[in-house]
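[Meeting: bench + compute handoff]

Bench side (C.D.) handed over the final construct sequence. Compute side (W.E.) agreed to return the predicted structure before the next meeting so the bench team could plan truncations. Sequence as handed over:
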Amino acid sequence: MGLAFVGIIGIQFYWIVKTVRSEKESFNYQVTGAMLEVVRTLERNELAEETSLFYNEDEIDNHIPSKEELDAYEYSHDQLAESDDKYANKILLTNEFIKHLSNKNKNRLIEERINPNVLDSLIDVNLKKRNITSEYEYAVYHQVRDTLFWKHFQNRETFFKNASSFVLFPSDKMKHPSYLLIYFPDNTQSLLKGLAPLLIATSLIVILLACTYFVALKNIIKQKRLVEEENDFLNNMTHEFKTPISTIALASEMLSDPTISKDQKLIDKYLKTIRDENKRLGEMADKILTTAKISNGKMNFQMEKLDIHEIIVEIAEQFKMKVEIKDGELILDLNATDTDIYGDKVHITNVISNLLDNANKYSPKKPIIKISTESHNNFVVISIIDNGIGIAKSELKKIFYKLYRVPTGDIHNVKGYGLGLSYTKSIVEAHHGHIEVESELGKGSVFSVYLPLYQEKTIGKIIRNNKRQS
């Protein structure tokens, strides 16, 4: 995909460069044609003018011929007398005129031969004939005298460096002719302006391809991650289910032993093990099914008015033993002034229990876990603070993904499926709240749950949301 994408961009770039080059060549061809027409017109105009003057009687009467002109006239007159061919006579007269014109114009200065107004008009007309409307600069340059005439440019150095040159009066065949110089300062911009539709279309295609490529790449990486997480989930789930199943099987086998059937204490012990493991299996199955329902938007909530402090105190009493077993401490710091919320007691209890359970599991040493509450605008904020191993900043955005589990380094005894935080986030958002996390490796984590207070507006929103889901 990457090679194809780069190849397409390369081909597009190649054709754009080629198109620009072709447009420049076409532009230069049109300019050359226009300037050659200007040069021919100037020469024709001069020829017409000189012809009129040469055969004007007033001009002949007032002109005093030189010795060379008289000798040439006598020679041509003698040739005409000797020839009876009318075409030959015309050729001789034409040759005589051409010699006169050639000798006369070679000695004339370029500024005497060109009318600047006529030159300006000819350049403008011939460029417009070829649909060239770009701004231009021009001048006439005499090489020997190193002089510029009728200068129409801003910067001499730039003009000389980039201007195209055309020989003026090329039929004179002089060693050092004069040149018409012309330069288009905005040529590139004009070309790009003309190619704007093509460039815009190409850019949009490239952007579309780039977006498609990166979206596809992102999806491929996401699918790869999901496959890996699903494989980890299946492995963890298999292990988690296998342990209670094995325990139940072993306890059942022991109960079938005739020697044990006589000992009521052992029977009660094995029955209790079976009940505990069966309950554990049910809880694991419920968690998986609940997560699936949330993902499908089919979760039904039993909403009621709840006092969040009462729920926290109740959970803390049950959870305190788990922390004390590890020589830890569970601290309550309940400072919220408004504590009534509208929610599902079971799921709200599960949210806080999940966060407490994570705080305990990921605290390898003596855990110090603090539950604090405070009022913030129209929310009650429940914060679970621990002194555990913490979470890397690069992992913070991923921890709420379903099936995702943070790598724990040297700690390999933490069990779970990667469903707890995903479930927690879904439940909090279903109650129109949100969850935030702050953490640093080696210094612990802070999970803050924002739940909206009990208000008519909040109740209405939650009820409508639950109806849509059901």
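W.E. noted at the follow-up: Confidence is low (pLDDT under 50) at residues 57-65. C.D. will use this when planning the next construct.
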